[in-house]
Amino acid sequence: MTAVASEPRRDDHARLPPHELLGVALQGLATRKLRAALSALGIAIGIGAMVAVVGVSSSAQANLLSEIDQLGTNLLTVAPSQDALGNNASLPNTALAMIAGMRNVSSAAAVYQVSNVNVYRSALIPSEQTGGIGVDATSDNLPAVVGTSLASGHFLGSVASRYPEVVLGAGAAQNLDFHQADGNVMVYIGGHLFTVVGILKPVALDSTLDGQAFISLPIAEKYFREPDTPSEIYVRSGQNAVNGVANLLPATANPQDPSGLSVNRPSNVLEARAAAKGQFTTLLLGLGAVALLVGAIGIANIMVISVLERRGEIGLRRALGATRGHISAQFLAESALLAAIGGVAGLALGAGATDVYAVTKHEPFVIPSYALIAAPACGFVIGALAGLYPAMKAARLSPTEALRA
Amino acid sequence: MIELSEVIKEYAGGVRALRGISLQVADGEQVAIVGPSGSGKTTMLTILGTLERPTSGRVEIEGTAIAEASDPALAGLRAHRIGFVFQSFHLQETMSVLDNVATGMLYMGLPLRERRRIARGALDRVGLSHRVDFRPRTLSGGERQRVAIARAVAKQPAILLADEPTGNLDSRSGAGVLELLHGLGLDGATLVLITHDAAVADTFPRRLHMRDGEIIEDEAA
Ligand SMILES: Nc1ncnc2c1ncn2[C@@H]1O[C@H](COP(=O)(O)OP(=O)(O)O)[C@@H](O)[C@H]1O
Ligand SMILES: [Mg+2]
């Protein structure tokens, strides 16, 4: 009945339910917008800096991981490992054929190190100046197996097995100052003139190949009577069988002495590097934390001033039935809300900075999902802490003194 | 029901604002407390309104002994049973007239819609239906005090306490406010009004004269 409904409740409890508290706090902030915005800015800058640090490192990490994904994580290498005495074990000549015949191996290529042979740009260069370019004999499918392609020219082919042709790794070409392989440039290898027919792009999965020069096996045998055993074999396995193939590789390559061989997965190195990129830069995070602290002090300061200015309001609310707890809750809520808004603004700032970074570096834009919760939550907690003292001050104000004013 | 016995209120610094007040005010009574400035009238009102505890003596308001009651219990008493009207209005400029009156019931736990509905009724009773959406500062002094009265009476308090409610008003609007307060007394609320103005006090059936923190005369017509 309306008559009953219009009668105010008479159980004599003072109440301020959470939604009313929120309303009171929002109203308190809304009436001092500029001041609220300025004090929230401090928190926004601190949280923005932290979000940007996390965002940029996550984006860089995501970028590296997607590069690794493109290169493939199914490349394995098998090579002789040095024993305790420093003696090299060896890969038997039959290893490549045995590996290529394995289940779940899609392709494999071997490199044979041609020792004691150097690459020069002309016959006049003294033999000491080798530029550190080693010579490997290999097969035509090496670029495909290791996941690279030609920056210029073509790789070894049928002609290269009969005539002295060479393909340079990216680093080797740079060392020799070659940028184009148009069939007109020559190098001296072990005293023989070789035509440079190709230059490789960098091999992301195994950068040691970049510093090498590659010739065909028949030519290596014909000119240098070397080598007889592979120095390393590159293996592409089925994507879901990488571990199985890796386990079987040593015994397949050398059934007599499998323990003399070591198997590596080059993408692991890159993944470790990606993980390292994901680590936040502690120094930058520290700077963000300092900005946050300054922001928190700013909020505490503003709230103390606010309490003094609003003594009349506090006295009135006490007269209207607010408990000390209601008064302190009101100021705590204002402070926490203010900083939470700062946290959301900081999230936007940090995301903006990350976006600028991602666009200029052509990397994917990544903000970890936890940051979406953590940024406002962080602001809220900081604001609540900063508001603790002002709220207690407000609650302790004598209501009559405020009302006399 | 208001009962005070041997109430002493001493402020920090040794100022004795009340020096042994004993007093009974029955439900529905209309009482004026009259005295010169500094005689302890406002202090008396803060004690009656449970905003302050006495230094010594016994205070019982609506059956609650103030000395033993907790802060939330006293706040609850104020929220539901006591209405205040101040000389300087204490309206909030950041809110409309309607919300100023509605906020008077905030701590009762009434939902906003209900508060606003009751507030409209209260503003209607004080003759300000046409001012509900105004800001307080756009109103005249008399109108502002009527808003404050609406805020105090909207909750239908058992006790209405007014401290110099006409002190900031010209005599015409002062008279209007006084008439309004007397009229609201028909609801059965106890009304205690403080004034230094004998003419205002004379409109009350019972007058307590104060001087130097003591009641020197309890005068009933
Ligand atoms: N918070 C206070 N601290 C110290 N003295 C006060 C305080 N409030 C009032 N007084 C003193 O108490 C006495 C009574 O004050 P008050 O109750 O305001 O009188 P009235 O309202 O009759 O003018 C005065 O002497 C005043 O100076
Ligand atoms: Mg006074």
Please provide a written account of the structure.
The complex is a heterodimer of chains A (405) and B (221). Chain A has 405 residues and is α+β, with helices and mostly antiparallel strands. Chain A is 54% helix and 15% strand. The longest helix of chain A has 39 residues, at 33-71. The model of chain A is unreliable at 1-9 (pLDDT under 50). Chain B has a single domain, classed as Rossmann fold. In chain B, 32% of the residues lie in helices and 27% in strands. Chain B contains seven helices and ten strands. In chain B, the strands form two sheets. In chain B, strands 6-7-8-3-9-10 form a six-stranded mixed beta sheet. Chain B has a four-stranded antiparallel beta sheet with strand order 2-1-4-5, with helices on one face. Classes of the chains: A alpha+beta (405), B alpha/beta (221). The A-B interface holds A 5-17, 20, 23-24, 27, 30-31, 312-313, 315-326, 398-400, 403-404 and B 42, 46, 49, 51-52, 71-73, 75-81, 84, 86, 90, 92, 94-95, 103-110, 112, 114, 117-118, 121, 155-156. The complex binds adenosine-5'-diphosphate and magnesium ion (MG). The site of magnesium ion (MG) has 2 residues of chain B, from α1.
